[in-house]
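Objective 1b: paired records.
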Amino acid sequence: MGCCSVVLEKRSPTGDHRARPRRGESTDDARLQGVLALVRAWSHPVIHADRAGVVTSGNPAAERLGLVGRKLADLLRGSGWEPGLLAVTGDAQPRVVVVEASGGRQRWLLCPTPDGITLAMEAPAATGRTDEATTLRSLLLTVLGHDLRNPVAAIRMAADYLVRSGTVTDRQAKALARIAGSADRLTTMLDQLLDFTRIQLGEGLPITPVPMDLHALCHQVREEIEVSHPERRVMHRSSGDGRGQWDLLRLSQVVQALVGNALVHGAPDKPVVMSSLDDGDHVVVQLQNEGPPIAPDVLPHLLEASADVLRARSIRRGDGNLGLGLYLANQVILTHGGRMEVRSTTSEGTTVTLRLPRQPPSPPR
């Protein structure tokens, strides 16, 4: 693999290059074999990509995840590092990039080589009792999330029953509607909490792809929004073939959440424009709203969910919302092998773009 030429390179304490080992020496052969054995035994992916940015080889961990044959641009999406920059700058300095993946944050060590680039995924840092406490806290949140769902569902059903009974006054019916709405919001928060916990525990988000049409899904969401927000206008434009294999429930939740965000933050006298577009092997969904742009210091962290980001988001909102909506929407898209981008300017407003392959990647075995 391409990583050996980098790993075996020796430097003096001052950083100067020294004579390299001669290939014919048995001690060097033994060292090389030792390094290769470590690479093969490493429980995390080690891969090599050619200068076109395609992964050409990998250790057993990489092969199990199906990384060989994939493009670096997909693996490192969202890290801020572009493989194409290597050919332009000739940069040969190792570096670490961080990728927000569906299973959580990944750190990759990149080592450029003459014929491409070698990458090794770092193992998560072992922090002893801190890791144990984090795991226990996540498990506690999971248990609470599951246990709270039943009483919340009972409250919702009781409110619906009383409204349908026809024995309540108009004032009581309004109170019951508020109770039902609060139960629905709490159910959404519990769902988000459970999904967030799955990601933090490294389980990722389970999806069940089925044949569906994104054009039809967007049209249905628009009709539902017109009923719940008759004072607002949502436009939907579609082109080409919108069919593919996706998780219907999760994508419905993503599109509904993004349209809801656009209604909340967009100009109230302007329409929200939703587009679903055929793009060959992909289908693209865009939502655009006019209004004040997202603050420049907020935009780069909009799809993150670190403790500091969530704390700042909660303070800004001041409504008790978990602030996980966009983060989880991005995780759903990543799990489908897709990409989510947010662009926001004063002149163009805010545009959220979802780019989804028609067939999501197979889960690792």
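Objective 1b, second protein:
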Amino acid sequence: MSAEGTTAKAAAGAAARRRSPGAAWQKPDLAAAFLDEYRKLIPALDIQERLISTLLTREGRAIDRFLDLGAGAGAFTRLVMEAHPDSTGVLLDFSEPMIVAAEQRLAGTRSRWEYVRGDLSAPAWRDALPAGERYDAIVSGFCIHHLPDERKRSLYEEVLELLQPGGIFLNWEHVAAEGMAEGMFEEFMIERLVEAEQQRESARPAEEVARAYREREAADDDILTDSLTQCGWLREAGFERVELFFQLPELALFGGARPGGNGRGGG
């Protein structure tokens, strides 16, 4: 990359850090593009969804009330509600296009969830929640990686406080990778994007697709931290039974439980 290109990229990253983390997802075109393609883009998606469903139900776990942080269009919420047909939830996000998408995609279960607007970049996000509630499960999918590391750690402490004794937290997340795995996630994403583009009538050249992905605005919002470090932060916050359940290069599912209860949720 040229010196001018490096300077421009650094300036874009600095601008992204000055705005609210994840602000790029306020743009309807970016949100729509992700929603149209995400089932094709995320590797081993079916396996990960089955694992999540198992974690939500094993050991006789009861989930009556849940919270979905950075809920987007409701993909994680759908998994929780399918695993626990009597559960109800609170979805929190600040992306208006994603909220609109959730209202459309979850319309058939409208009586079981409510959407609130909140920004996880500051502790005041909790003010948007129904007063006095604790949750049997708190979940988050591809959201927390937009936050600075210090804020990630504080958020994990806030999540613990909102869980019922024995309640669980699952974070399905974009994480950092090093060594031989570094860059593999980007390579996979570009490969799948090129494949999807080739199905269009007026397909762009592969080089243009790759360049558009690498220069996308949302990339400047990513603040990636490896999964094991974040598992350590969960333990420091007070979680127990912390585990890295699944990992591919730059993609992970990890979480833990609040001490107390019977270890199976539901108080």
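The two ends are 55 Å apart (CA to CA). Strands lie at 65-69, 88-93, 113-117, 135-141, 163-174, 240-248, 251-257.
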